Amino acid sequence: METRRFRTAAAHYILGRSPYPPAFIAELAAACRLSRSDRLLDLGTGPGLLALAFAPYVGSVVAVDPEPEMLRLAEEAVRASGAAVELRQGRAETLGPDWGRFRAVTMGRSFHWMDRAETLRRLEAVVEPEGMLLLFNDKVADLPENAALQAWSAVVERYSADDRVRMERKSPEWQDHEVVLRDSPFSDVERRVHLHRADTTVELLVHRALSMSATSESRLGPRAEAMATELRATLAPFAAAGPLVEWIEWTALIARRPRVPTNC
Q: What global pTM score does this model have?
């Protein structure tokens, strides 16, 4: 996994990324029957947004990320919240039984950075028998009300088009997460979708672009400022017409071990 491109993305991540909708987190916590007696593992935690979102529903959270700058920001957020979140620098491919057992494992837009088969093999040893994995993703909803976000996406797509990691994920050989999960011990997969409306601004959307690995300042270099200038010019007409509104389609894959039929 390439980690240092997230060094410059970290500060932009907190400002620009869409927060996980509280109603969706509550729905998933209820569906997974999480309780204050449970431990949760958040892999690729970044600045801790998903770990902190789930912290009220479990007894404790272990949040892991390889990027020191992300963990520094996560530490500040955890300290401010007072949540029971333990931060660790590391990779999913190094987890083992010494980490303890977990009722749930969350990953927010991070699974594609991992050796997915190896990660799932290691998770088999640390996830409780009735436990589950929750993989999150989000995208700009295909709605007329999202014209500003669609214009933003078009600019970001152009600047990220030559990114090696992005090209790999767009290739015909790349398997979707759901396909990988169904060929793993966690093959019972359920998909949940949540449509969320929020207000945003031009500057927050510039931060969002710079928070993404393919369009981070670390990867783009001088082109990052050109992208930011182009985004401001592209979004200005939409902002002049009134507040910017975004509709984000959130997806969560809940993956469990298959239930073993019992003989009556």
A: 0.92
